[in-house]
Design brief:
- There is one protein chain.
- The chain is built from three helices and 13 strands; from the N terminus they run H-H-E-E-E-E-E-E-E-E-E-E-E-H-E-E.
- It has helices at 3-29, 36-47, 215-220; strands at 51-53, 57-60, 66-75, 84-95, 104-113, 116-120, 151-154, 157-167, 175-186, 193-201, 204-212, 224-232, 235-243.
- Strands 1, 2, 3, 4, 5, 6, 7, 8, 9, 10, 11, 12 and 13 form a 13-stranded mixed β-sheet that branches.
- The N and C termini lie far apart (66 Å).
Length: 252
């Protein structure tokens, strides 16, 4: 091996070892709980909802910075029936650092354990998942579309043991959807996601497998492609096509 190449290889290895050691020392000394108040304030500012973390908050061991939060709750719209829109037993997020420099939040992976989500449509047809400025969330005004919020790109999602309730306008009892397992991970180098779901809908077993568009496409409100094989009880079928307006607020 040429001397120059040998020295270059040794230098690269040394830099990698020093970088890994530096990251390790940082993780050992980093106390994420010190930032509980800052994180709470940031979420409340961006959503206009009360947010709290009752459990621990810390960096988990991972090749990418992974923030773990336990026992967190996000308040509901003032007009909603339930006081809490979202609660989660444990949340893990892997965040890419470079996009933060451009005001973007690129979440490489997000894991939700035992989340409970209460979705509801207000009198004006607006969903409680569309956030408004603090003090303006009465369900009769046009919700904030997210103007001024940082761009968020979630690449991979995993949900375990979730309960989702949906209460439509004029509905007395919510529809209940329980997820045993949901995973959505990138398929190759493209935008599509490989999706696997096992769940129950009103006590009917449901499963889905196939591909969808990226989570960024969904939140952007652009046409969202679907190619899924579905089972509901003894019935089987497929879903092929796209959702034209996945985050529309018309209640449909």
């Amino acid at each position: 091996m040429p001397r120059a190449l040998k020295f270059l290889l040794i230098a690269v290895i040394a830099v990698c070892i020093l970088t890994a050691a530096g990251i390790g020392m940082f993780l050992l000394q980093f106390d994420a709980s010190r930032y509980r108040e800052d994180l709470t304030a940031l979420v409340e500012q961006q959503t206009g909802r009360e947010f709290s973390i009752q459990g621990d908050i810390y960096l988990a061991a991972s090749l990418l910075p992974t923030l773990a939060v336990e026992q967190a709750t996000l308040g509901n719209a003032d007009w909603a029936r339930e006081p809490v829109m979202l609660s989660v037993g444990r949340l893990e997020t892997q965040i890419a650092l470079l996009p933060l420099l451009h005001g973007e939040i690129a979440i490489r992976r997000i894991i939700l354990l035992q989340p409970v989500v209460n979705l509801e449509i207000g009198e004006a047809g607006a969903g409680n998942w569309l956030f408004s400025a603090a003090g303006d969330d009465d369900g009769t005004q046009e919700p904030d579309r997210g103007e001024g919020l940082p761009a968020i790109d979630i690449r991979e999602l995993q949900i375990e043991e979730a309960t989702i309730t949906y209460l439509g306008a004029g509905q007395d009892q919510p529809t209940v959807f329980r997820i045993d397992h949901l995973s959505a991970a990138p398929e190759g180098l493209g935008e599509s996601l490989q999706v696997e779901l096992t769940a129950t809908f009103e006590d009917l077993p449901v499963s889905l497998s196939g591909t969808t568009g990226s989570l960024a496409q969904f939140t952007a409100g652009t046409p969202y492609p679907l190619s899924l094989a579905a089972k509901a009880g003894a019935a089987e079928g497929s879903i092929e096509g796209r959702i034209e307006n996945p985050v529309g607020n018309d209640g449909n």
